[in-house]
Amino acid sequence: MTRSSTERADTTAGIGGSPIRPDGALKVKGEFAYSSDLWAEDMLWGATLRSPHPHARITAVRIGKALALPGVHAVLTHDDVPGRNRFGLEHADQPVLAEDVVRYQGEPVAVVAADHPETARRAAALIEVDYDVLDPVTDPETALADGTPALHPDGNLVRHVRIRRGDPEPAAPVVVTGEYTVGMQDQAFLGPESGMAVPAEDGGVDLYVATQWLHVDQRQIAESLGVPQEKVRITLAGVGGAFGAREDLSMQVHACMLAMHTGKPVKFVYGREESFFGHVHRHPAVMRYEHGATEDGRLVYVRARILLDGGAYASTTSAVVGNAATLGVGPYEVPNAHVDAFGLYTNNPPCGAMRGFGAVQACFGYESQMDKLAAALGMDPVDLRVRNAVREGSTMPTGQVIDSAAPVAELLRLVRDKPMPAPVGDAEGVADPRELPGGVSNTTRGEGVRRGVGYGVGIKNVAFSEGFDDYSTARVRLEVIGGEPVVSVHTAAAEVGQGLVTLQAQIARTELGVHQVTILPADTAVGSAGSSSASRQSYVTGGAVKAACEAVRAEVLAIAADVLPAGGELYLNGGKVIASTGEAVADVAALLGDRVVEHTVEWRHRPTQPLDPATGQGNAHVQYAFAAHRAVVDVDTELGLVRVVELACAQDVGRALNPQAVVGQIQGGSAQGLGLAVMEEIQVVGGKVVNPSFTDYLIPTILDMPPMPIDVLELADPHAPYGLRGVGEPPTISATPAIVAAVRAATGAALTRIPIRPEHVVFTTVEDGGHSS
Amino acid sequence: MRVNIEVNGEQRVADTVWEGESLLYVLRERLGLPGSKNACEQGECGSCTVYLDDVAVCACLVAAGQAEGRSVRTVEGLADGDRLDPMQQAFVEAGAVQCGFCTPGLIVAAHDLVRRNPRPSDLEIRESLAGNLCRCTGYEKILDAVRLAAERMGASGGTA
């Protein structure tokens, strides 16, 4: 990293600052146009008919009554899909509209366009579908077993990743085993799936939609519409959160089909219940771990078997399995590792990307094991983790050597050494009910409440792995407008709330020394930016914007060198060309006149390699990121109610390009980890979701969230732009096991399943190693 | 049916309203005020919080007909032109806005809190805003924003 050559510009609001977000004023005034806010003259509303069954054969679909309803303009089924009736991020295995078989409850069967959303919904309800209901496969272990009917032509196994390192039959004096279960978490973004498709005169379509990756949508939509890619033009509409749930298609093809069929703009807005069926979820997992260690607490080996339920369609299951396997032993030095991770098809809801992406599930397993091992050794759980922590130069179970900072031990010490929160209540021990487990339900006055402290640390890969050609494209233009130099930055990168628009402008200001920067709307008129996922956009799109700015700067300085006396290096700052003496030698506006300097750069991070299929060896990841949490909880041991009192986090971000946004990511990510620990689960019974609403699927409120003190380390990664390290996912990974460990510490309960339910705390069994109060 | 509502100080009329439509639907789809957000349609998330005759309500739970002849103030009615309300300004400055979908409802709810209770404690802020879900921030910076706005409004004698 060379801070000197590229960062001499001291223009305010450059990198390292926390300028006001450019979309902030619009958002607080209610004027920011989200995908659900779109409106067009003469537009129609779309609605989707979904399968009520998790597994069934369709024998007939009759649309007559729906079509006859006044106000209905179109009713379309799979027969009307103009191109390929399949889509999917890694395997095109999912129908746009079901043909002969439905494989999950909520699978789209038909779509309607009408002049009022209620008319569209009623028309969808009038479509008659005859189903032969089939037995659903609802358990991934069953899906894997011989003799289970195959749900897809290639069988039920989506992917099996093997990691084999060191001695295949290692032995150790101290061994702990455990089986751990992770429930199905939902991203629960607040802005439901929505968008509007507008038919174009050239036979194509313009789509305004909330998504994470415009170009992967474009490719899939064009294939299903049977039109060339350039006939599908996508503009990012305002995105109400994403967290992985917008990586797969939802209403995109449906809206385009209806718009092209009716010749009118068609808008879809899912309701909350439909949203639970409209996107993929976090993979539930069943994990078996065995850890062997020396008596002084050095890990000798880890064996793990991780089963991930991918649900009805593959989505990103393959990559999730890759993460769970390669990160499956955590941020620890393990000389002998034997990991098998499987992703399976079932008739449960499809699972795919959610913040943490395979690393979340594994972290609950290995961190639970580290606590169990510490107990078996009689060691402090932080000391055990520190003793085995990876550092720069450590070798991962894939054989990959960590080639930049890995301050795992330091992060753990930072959270351990923070002052402890005070006990609740006044000097007499009388507490406000809002500070006690159960809160304003007033379920305790403090009797039976015990405090516990727990720790967790996690590891995540940043950006796309395993040899994927991962790049972003940025077009940067410098011109003089109204006598002032102005920069515009154009990418297709999706701002999903994380603050990427702010960051792109910060980079342009720093690199070009110009204050006025405009971020153009993200659309497919410029090349792909890749996905806003995998904590990758600051790195990859940030890298692309930086590189495009460097190209613009080089041209401006070449122009300057032509007209200025020779000598010394030049740079840009405050709208001026500055000599190495620090003297302003030219005005950029005067130098350029009407000349426009524009460069488009496609930028890639270092290449990664695929994993060896037999041994899982390979340099599969471009960068690792780490966070550690300390959780303090109060537990009502009689009712099993948990209140998280404080959730402290320390994370290395390489370099905080926008410190306010970094802390916001860490706190928001930690909150989603808290949700998985104590409340959030899509409950699936016989393949059917029983709680698809915010009444029954609970996400943390402001009363559930504790204060979150944050320590940010900035240990630069020399391979990354500005030394940055991806931020978004690590805090979601380690928050969960830290909270569970704290509840175990308070209660002695074994707690092998998340989210923790009250009965797990109260009715724990002695043989689980828990208490029985 | 026809519904007459005073919205942000202006008399508005919505025609051909279906009886099942909510106040939220009429505001968003018939009166051109999409600032109030629809995220759950059952009063769980608070994203559609508006003032109805000066009482903060979830507009998704109010039938359009119930608003007949009444006065509504939405998030669009808080700023004075380009001058943000202190609560809006504080949300932007404190980093309380990420995706921003919960923001309009939270701002109206927090605006209402500080109007009723100019110096709320942290516990009072938490209790008052417990009906407004945010998925991005973990709420820490929302607390910062409400504290900042309350402090500024207290110092300047408050705003309506």
TrEMBL record, chain A:
Region of interest (Disordered), ranges: 1-20, 423-447
Residue ranges the record marks as coiled coil: none
Signal peptide: none
GO molecular function per UniProt: iron ion binding; oxidoreductase activity
Pfam families: Ald_Xan_dh_C, MoCoBD_1, MoCoBD_2
Compositionally biased tracts (Basic and acidic residues): 1-10
PANTHER family xref list: XANTHINE DEHYDROGENASE, XANTHINE DEHYDROGENASE SUBUNIT D-RELATED
Name of the protein described by the UniProt record: Xanthine dehydrogenase D subunit
Source species: Actinokineospora iranica
UniProtKB/TrEMBL annotation, chain B:
Lineage: superkingdom: Bacteria
Keyword Acetylation: no
Pfam families: Fer2, Fer2_2
Keywords attached to this entry: 2Fe-2S, Iron, Iron-sulfur, Metal-binding, Oxidoreductase
PROSITE patterns from the UniProt entry: 2FE2S_FER_1, 2FE2S_FER_2
Gene3D superfamilies registered for this protein in UniProt: 3.10.20.30, [2Fe-2S]-binding domain (1.10.150.120)
Gene Ontology terms for molecular function: 2 iron, 2 sulfur cluster binding; metal ion binding; oxidoreductase activity
Domain 2Fe-2S ferredoxin-type: 1-78
InterPro entries the record matches: 2Fe-2S-bd, 2Fe-2S-bd_dom_sf, 2Fe-2S_ferredoxin-like_sf, 2Fe-2S_ferredoxin-type, 2Fe2S_fd_BS, Beta-grasp_dom_sf, Diverse_Oxidoreductases
Name used for this protein in its record: Carbon-monoxide dehydrogenase small subunit
Organism from which the protein derives: Actinokineospora iranica
